[in-house]
Amino acid sequence: MCGIVGYIGNNDAASILISGLKKLEYRGYDSAGIAVHENSKIKIKKKKGKLDNLISEIESEIFSGKTGLGHTRWATHGKPSDSNSHPHDDYNGEIVIVHNGIIENFESLKKDLTAKGHQFKSDTDTEVVAHLISSNYEDDLKQAVEKSVQKLEGSFAMAVMAVDQDDRIIAVRKDSPLIIGIGENENFLASDIPAYLSRTNDFYILEDGELAEIRKDSIDIYSFSSGEKKEKIKTHIDWDAEMAEKQGYVHFMLKEINEQPEALKWLLQDRLKDGQIDLRDSNIDKKWLSKYSKIHIVACGTAYHSGLLAKYLYEELLQISVEVEVASEYRYRKPLADKSTLMIAVSQSGETADTLAALRLAKKKGADILAFTNSRDSSIARESDMVLYLNAGPEIAVASTKAYTNMVAAFYMLVLDGLRQKDDFSKKALKKLTDELIKLPELMRLVIDNTEEKIKKIAEKYAEKAHIFFIGRNTDYALALEGALKLKEISYIHSEAYPAGELKHGTLALVEEGVPVISIALRKRLFAKLFSNLKEVKSRGAETLLITSAGNSYDEDTVDEVVELPEVDDYFAGLLAVVPMQLLAYYTALICERDIDQPRNLAKSVTVE
Ligand code: G6P
Q1: Which residues contact 150 (CB under 8 A, 6 or more apart)?
Q2: What residues form DSSP beta bridges with 522?
Q3: What is the Å distance from ligand 1's center to 315 Cα?
Q4: What is the pLDDT of residue 431?
Q5: Residue 1: pLDDT band by 50, 70, 90 thresholds?
């Protein structure tokens, strides 16, 4: 949800800002802009549309400034337009600001400022903050920002410059991420780490309520409510810049699909000791299964689908009650969370606003929080009692693939850890399941290699369809939801998932000649049931695709296409089945000529409600 960058040092700020924005475009791409200190002025250039529009706009311009800010926008207040793009200024160009988040009380602030004679050029909440800071500015930018943020309600990560102080950038954070990259005689500011990984591996991660005064050779961090100076510990990130590059793939999504076996291996190898799951690094109690009477899983989007799959497994194998809910619903309910509740908050970015709010609510009610996240030191990681890092490496494509796989695998590891604690579950059966889990990275590689060509052919047919349905039962239903989400978000083809048995209660009315129905049939005990649903749609003219494991026999007249996966315990087969669905979404979107890594209207990291 909007990407912020900043630079202060001895080099050409404009090009460094643009290179940072390129890495953050996944956060929003409605418009982009930069502001650079130039000859006693702040030069602002901003443009509606993707970053490339801005780049062509400024191609022939000469920038010489060494301090600046940049922004890529995902519109909330005010439609995407040149004037609503960031950076914003206080009309006179004296105070310049970039912002990620939502200022909830901007209308009343705007009214007060208008009454004092301020004039506005945009419809945004951000511009109001530029004016507010300007009205509090005498000769100390830090003080003016400090005073202004006390008046703000909502969420913000902001960076501010003043025309007469080109030796500093002031940054503040509340409920939206912001990190400072530490260089030599230069420092960087960004919404996310990949922006400046090519220039530094050391960062300060700002926390809520912190203000940073950044100069080229110093970084001072304060609490913006008490003014007290803080000692921060550097975070060293061992990802390299190349990990956040396309490395020859046309799209990040395809690269990330292909990285899944490796990412899964990293996740597992850290937590497998002597052939057994060892989750000590997450800080989870060795006897957590008896400590809690219920689990609440909260997440959004793809992460939610990983939790739904876990619900089926945990209730079946661990006999513990599991509720799974999208975080934006959970946070406004009165959930029955208490001391006996383990909340699992799942989030690739660790910054999703709704998931964070749901976590805070459960925490207040006494629940213990376990986070599954891919982002070290993210807000969700910091506010949780226990963290299981997903180790998927940087995920850039908006549509999540390798982070999802590792979320599901994290749930698998936790279920095995739970089974270890059950006296009535034999050690032999546990060993067998663990061995099956260990096989998954290799099998996943086989699935990618063996299904890609077939999927490309299926995609050619599907690219012309208006509606595509996915069905499944139990864990296969959770997978169907993920398959449908992947397809719709990047191909823009209407796709929906249904529990197979529910079709006849309405959706069957939409099935007619030529409508594709994709059925996921991995659970052996439910295979026959699912297959009878497939027959129902086939007899109404559907084009059927069956995704199943080798060894399940079926009537060939009912299925038009089959993707057969290597045999593995059906509790774990989901991790293999998701791969052809990701590839199907990818190749269908490719034929439809969609913007695969940055689908319209979406953003990767949703740090606003
Ligand atoms: C956005 C992204 C999805 C992601 C969801 C949750 O909608 O486009 O890919 O699944 O947010 O993100 P999180 O970072 O919390 O996993």
Answers
A1: 224, 225
A2: none
A3: 25
A4: 94
A5: low
Please enumerate in sequence order all residues whose Cβ is within 8 A of that of 537, keeping only pairs 6 or more positions apart, or say none: 469, 471, 503, 508, 511, 515, 517, 544
Q: State which amino acid sits at residue 220.
A: D
Cα 175 from Cα 206, distance rounded (Å): 10
Residue type, 589: A
| Helix or strand holding residue 426 (H, E) | none
Task: Name beta bridge partners: 297.
Answer: 324, 344
Q: Is 362 helix (H, G, I), strand (E, B) or coil?
A: helix
Stated as kind and residue range, the H or E segment containing 188 is: strand 187-190
Dihedral angle, C-alpha 442, 447, 453, 458, nearest 10 °:
-160
Task: Specify the amino acid at residue 162.
Answer: A
**Chain mean pLDDT for the chain:** 94
Token readout for 178 is 């912001």
Residue 351 CA, ligand 1 centroid: distance in Å: 9
Give the chain's radius of gyration (CA, Å): 25
Atom of ligand 1 nearest to the CA of 602: 8
Does the annotation mark 604 as catalytic? Answer: yes
Give the pLDDT band of residue 25 (cuts 50, 70, 90).
Answer: confident
The stretch 521-533 carries a mean pLDDT of 91
- pLDDT tens digits, one per residue of 316-359: 999 999 999 999 999 999 999 999 999 999 999 999 999 999 99
Cα–Cα distance for residue pair 604/595, rounded to 1 Å: 14
- The rounded distance, in Å, linking the Cα atoms of 175 and 153 is 11
Q: Is the dihedral of CA 103, 105, 106, 112 positive or negative?
A: negative
Residue with tokens 């301090």: 67
Ligand 1 surroundings by CB, under 6 angstroms: 300-303, 347-349, 352, 355, 398-400, 602, 604-606
Neighbours of 435 (CB within 10 A): 11
pLDDT digits 0-9 by tens, 229-239: 999 999 998 77
Annotation marks residue 2 as catalytic: yes
Beta strands in 254-374 (DSSP E): 272-273, 276-277, 294-299, 321-326, 341-347, 368-373
Q: Which distant-in-sequence residues (6+ apart) come within 8 Å of 469 by Cβ?
A: 484, 495, 496, 497, 498, 507, 510, 511, 515, 516, 517, 518, 537, 542
Pick from 21-30, 74-83, 99-108 the range whose average pLDDT is largest: 99-108
287: pLDDT confidence band, cut at 50, 70 and 90? very high
Q: Length of the chain, please?
A: 609
Asked if pLDDT for residue 510 goes beyond 80, the answer is yes
Angle between helices 260-270 and 402-420 (to 10 degrees): 30
Which ligand 1 atom is at minimum distance from the Cα of 400? 9
Q: What share of the chain is helix, strand, coil (3-state, %, to 5)?
A: 40, 25, 35
Give helix then strand counts, H and E, for the chain.
17, 27
Count of beta carbons in the 10 Å neighbourhood of residue 487: 28
